[in-house]
Every structure is written in C-alpha cells, then in structure tokens.
Amino acid sequence: MRDRSKWPRRAGPKKHITLACAISTVLLSAVACASSRPTLDLYLLDAPPLTLLGQDGRYGIVGDATFKAAAMAGYDLHLVSLPWARAQRTVAAGEDQLIIPLSRTPDREDRYTWVAPIMTMDRAFFSLDKRVDSFEEARRTYHRIAVGMGSAQEIKLREEGFSNEQIYPLKIGENPAQMLLLGRVDAWFNGVPESRHIWGEVSRRTLLMSPALMTADLYLACSRRCAEPMVSRLRAALEALRANGTLEQIVEDYSREPPSLDSPARPVSK
C-alpha cells in the first residue's frame, strides 16, 4: 500500500471559506473607503451656462469646475437649490457649506470664505430699443430695470445711485427676458453669458447691449466658518485645473453650445 502521508494535501472546504472571507473583507473595506468620502452641501442656482441643476450630468461652467475640483480634493457634493438671496444667507450663517457662482463684492467680503475664482464675467444693460454707454446714461434713460434679487448686479445699481423706483428686483426663476418683451421693464442689467443664453431661448428679436459696465470674478465660496484644510484642498484643486487647461476647456465647451449664444438667427447687437 502506498504511503498517503507523503502525498500533497488538498485545501479543504474550511481553507476555501477562509480565503473567500479574506477576499470579501478586502473588497468590503475598499467599498467602505470609497463611500467614506465626506459630502459637502453645494448651494447653486439655475443660471445657464454658468450653473445648471445637474441636467444630464452637467452643471454649467462654474458647476462643472466645482465638481471636478471637489472630486480631486476628495469630496462628494450634495446639490441644494434655494432662492438666491436665501441661499446666500444660509451659507453665510452656516458652516462648511459651499456656494456658486458668487461675485466677491465689498459688502460680502467678510461674510464668506473665498475659496478661489473660477471665471470672469462681464455685466451689461440689455434693451430692445435704447442702447446706453454708461451708468449715468442708464439712470437718465431707463425707468425700470430688471435685475436679479440679491445679486451683485442689484448691489452695483444701488452703489451707482439708481433709485428704488428704477430697480426692479426679480427672484431667480422669474424671466426678465419675457418682462422685457412684454414692455414691463425698459432694460435688464445682468451677466452677458447668461443673458445671451436666455434671450436665445425666448426671442429672435435683436437685443441691444451696452458695453460691459461691470466686470467681476465668479467664485467658489464657502461659509465664513469653513475648515481650513477643506479650503486649501479645494483651492489647490482649482489651481491645478486652471494650470492644466481644464477650466479653459470647460468654458470653450459651453461657449459652443447651445447655438443660441450669438447665433446669426438670434443676434445680440453690441
């Protein structure tokens, strides 16, 4: 009879189970690590092409840049949409909450932590029949000017001496382009990319645009009480996206679509 004690032993069921458990433990640990990324609240408004509420996985120029930076920095984002003035108050009074797109104006300086600028945006007056070249001319010409409630544009008009009767603040979601078409306002003071985008969706009439009378960077901002490591990581990520050309590419991608931006069929006159 052959000596079986010298034969190589097969791994029994117990060893197979032990090996499976070990693999499962590794996989579960990996899943746990992947799901342990901290989630930050991101407040934004629907203001294409600057920001979008996640339409088809896209978030607009500033939104896409913010999501890419957050992923690089190791964070997930949870979108929160509130009326713009309320969103600003909520973030300013909160802790570790993000907001986009926010202009860095003197009255906001001490209310937020300014993570990093993402893009520069011009603002101008838009009208159907009276083009102006300055704030002074606009004060003399326009009786009612539509402007976003709580926006940097509203703040600018008040700083430039426009009266309460001239300033017609609109909540985000109300359509200033439609009000202009209906003759309820004489002009609209707003960011150039957003205005062109909206106008291309509602009318083929020629829209008269003033020169850019206000230029300011659009920031990713955080609550005043904002963890410094988080700010540093997000800032570094945005700087990396700028350095490798990603931010520029995002702007170019949105500039090519929709076709209503400076489309010959839907002109914007300067």
Report on the architecture of this protein:
The chain is α/β, with parallel strands linked by helices and 270 residues long. It has 2 domains: 39-121 and 216-255, 3-Layer(aba) Sandwich (D-Maltodextrin-Binding Protein, domain 2); 122-214, D-Maltodextrin-Binding Protein, domain 2 (3-Layer(aba) Sandwich). It is 39% helix and 23% strand. It has 9 helices and 10 strands. The protein has helices spanning 13-34, 60-73, 84-93, 135-141, 152-159, 176-181, 192-202, 228-243, 246-255, and strands at 39-44, 76-80, 98-103, 112-127, 145-148, 167-170, 187-191, 207-209, 214-223, 268-269. Strands 1, 2, 3, 4, 5, 6, 7, 8, 9 and 10 form a 10-stranded mixed beta sheet that branches. Strand 1 (39-44), helix 2 (60-73) and strand 2 form a beta-alpha-beta unit. Helix 2 (60-73) packs across helix 8 (228-243) and helix 2 packs antiparallel against helix 9 (246-255). The protein is globular, with a radius of gyration of 26 Å. The model is unreliable at 1-34 and 257-270 (pLDDT under 50).
Describe the secondary structure blueprint for this structure:
Blueprint: H1 13-34, E1 39-44, H2 60-73, E2 76-80, H3 84-93, E3 98-103, E4 112-127, H4 135-141, E5 145-148, H5 152-159, E6 167-170, H6 176-181, E7 187-191, H7 192-202, E8 207-209, E9 214-223, H8 228-243, H9 246-255, E10 268-269
Parallel strand pairs: 1-2, 1-3, 5-6, 5-7, 8-10
Antiparallel strand pairs: 3-9, 4-7, 4-8, 4-9
